[in-house]
Amino acid sequence: MSSPGTPQLTFRAVVLAIVLAVVLSAANAYLGLFAGLTVATAIPAAVVSMGVLRLLGGGTILENNIVQTGASAGSSIAAGVIFTIPALIILGYWQDFQYSWVLAIAGLGGLLGVLFSVPLRRSMIVEEPLPFPEGKAAAEVLKAGENPGPGLKILAFSAAIGAVLKVAAHSGMRLIPDTAAGAGFFGKYLGYLGTNLSPALLGVGYIVGLNIGIVVLSGSILSWHIAIPLYHMFFMGTDPALAQSIAGAGAEDVAGAIWSAKIRYLGVGAMLIGGVWTLFSLRKSLLSGVKSGIAAARAGSGGADVAETDRDLPMKWMLVALVVFVLPLLLLYQAIVGMWHVSIPMAIIMIVAGFLFVSVSAYLAGLVGSSNNPVSGITIATILFASVVLLLLLGESGRMAIGAGGAPLGAVAAIMIGAVVCCAAAVGGDNLQDLKAGYIVGATPWKQQLMLGIGAFSCALIMAPVLNILSEAYGIGAPTAEHPNPLSAPQATLMASVAKGLFGGELPWGIIGIGAVIGAIIIAIDEALKAKGSSFRVPVLAAAIGIYLPLELMVPIFLGGLLAYLVEKRHGMVGTKDEEARDRLHRPGTLFAAGLITGEALMGIAVGVAIYATKDRDVLVLPEAFQQGEIVGLVILAIVGWLLYRTGAKSKALGEVEPGPK
């Protein structure tokens, strides 16, 4: 525990936090559009902070805490943006990402998330404390930060590996391919196997663990080994247009076409039912969170008699800021719909849904951690509710085409509401996680809340340029002739499909309905496992992501989770209920995994900048004689996997994994 006079919100800590927040938000934007997942950034940021501030002549535990607080906004703002805003490109409303609009949505949404979470701190952290696993883990890293050198070396080494392999991949030099895949017809059965060769996906799998790895891979197996072959054998005759488009194509192209046109909508149905179930299952927690938030707001904090370690941002200023932030959003909605009787209810929906879902997000972050927080499910529910209200308010005008691509007005308005709520919910849950770490190490809450607001707005400043670079270089959403292998943006594609479908768009509702039934079955299985007290669970949104995304993306995630399991087995910790001990065990491996993700993502953006600047997709491509085949790519991925396992297996060699003083 620190002393009351320990420096916290210093100039160097604020600057370092902003730099890390911007870098990590860009990396998470790439990862989320690529794989549909983002990863928490607080612990890597804390390790970097301890090393950098030491080089600058010291660095207190509370300065390092401020840095990790601000930097963690990189994952939350990135998630809020990439889950929703690309839907406006997919709908055809925008041709590129409009800077002022993205800044307004992400910046104001993030700041609202900070405001809405302030009254929740006392009830969820102090009075009736929730576990907040990642907050506890970050606090342990901060307390054990006397020797950050080994952790920095791990991060730097693995980031270099990720960066080098990304520039060598198909989107860069084409030295190695992006995937190793094969397909064939076995009688009438259409078989497909493949894996992406991305080291970052191995890192994602290591961080999320074997349980999630099994679930997402099982979802993909359902799509690619069951649904696609069944559709090819029995239902191709019901879709002459699709049958004609794949006539004479190879097995791999046939499988991809069936997945893109039909089977991925099973995942849409599963996500929809999963989002609704998430809200229903949390109804009591939601009410509890809202009640405690209102009670805390009435009680107030920040008075002269309140200890420094319990002082929040003053509530009266929170209310003033709420009005100041909401007014620009009201004008933004009015600029879209041009009808005050619609834009005012939109703003009200955004305020109410924002506060409710920040409470849900904070509660979930406290129970299962920010990485497992189903923000996408919360956003789906927001868009569904907003769409129903807008259908009533707009009537037929909701189907009116706007924008260059003729997007339905109602769909665009619903996405705009969902985007703000998504950013607020992501930041709110993350804020409580950081405040838990601060509570453990003796930080001042209002300083952390201020720092998270600064970090969130800093990330919002760079989101539009990053998204434009990625869109220009790789494409986003559906494959095109110019971008045959785009960043899939699964959540944003789902949001666009749902919003457009509710305003008259054509969707395969029959397949979506089957997906909803599958989602309900998954929920029933998970509830049965919960009732038995099983440590293995089947979260419906994770399964839905597996159903929705290509098989090759899920294979390395599963393999990364398997490596994490093997590390636990080596140390005799399989099945342990001591989460803190497990976190300490995995810390070196988690840092290695985070480095792989960060290095690949940042190099992916750098490659995108080169393509964006030259308007030449082949600017980095080597002559064909240097290009290697899939076997070389598989061997390289295996070597990276071995290094990841070796780092995790030797975790006790690092001093910072030992628990700090209690």
Description:
The protein is 71% helix and 3% strand. The chain has 24 helices and 4 strands. The chain has helices at 11-35, 42-55, 61-71, 73-82, 86-90, 99-117, 121-127, 133-143, 149-168, 199-234, 240-245, 251-281, 283-299, 315-337, 340-368, 375-394, 409-441, 445-474, 490-502, 509-531, 540-548, 551-570, 579-614, 630-649; strands at residues 179-186, 189-196, 401-402, 407-408. The chain has a two-stranded antiparallel ribbon with strand order 1-2. Strand 3 and strand 4 form a beta hairpin. The longest helix is centred in the first third of the chain and has 36 residues, at 199-234.
Low-confidence stretches are 653-662
Query: What form results from the Cα inertia axes?
Result: globular
Proportion of strand residues: under 5%
Helix content: over 70%
How confident is the prediction overall: mean pLDDT?
81
Strand order, sheet with most strands: 1-2
Sheet of most strands: 2 strands, antiparallel
Question: Concise description?
Answer:
The chain has helices at 11-35, 42-55, 61-71, 73-82, 86-90, 99-117, 121-127, 133-143, 149-168, 199-234, 240-245, 251-281, 283-299, 315-337, 340-368, 375-394, 409-441, 445-474, 490-502, 509-531, 540-548, 551-570, 579-614, 630-649; strands at 179-186, 189-196, 401-402, 407-408. The chain has 662 residues and is mostly helical.
Q: What order do the helices and strands come in, and which of them pair?
A:
Layout: H1 11-35, H2 42-55, H3 61-71, H4 73-82, H5 86-90, H6 99-117, H7 121-127, H8 133-143, H9 149-168, E1 179-186, E2 189-196, H10 199-234, H11 240-245, H12 251-281, H13 283-299, H14 315-337, H15 340-368, H16 375-394, E3 401-402, E4 407-408, H17 409-441, H18 445-474, H19 490-502, H20 509-531, H21 540-548, H22 551-570, H23 579-614, H24 630-649
Antiparallel strand pairs: 1-2, 3-4
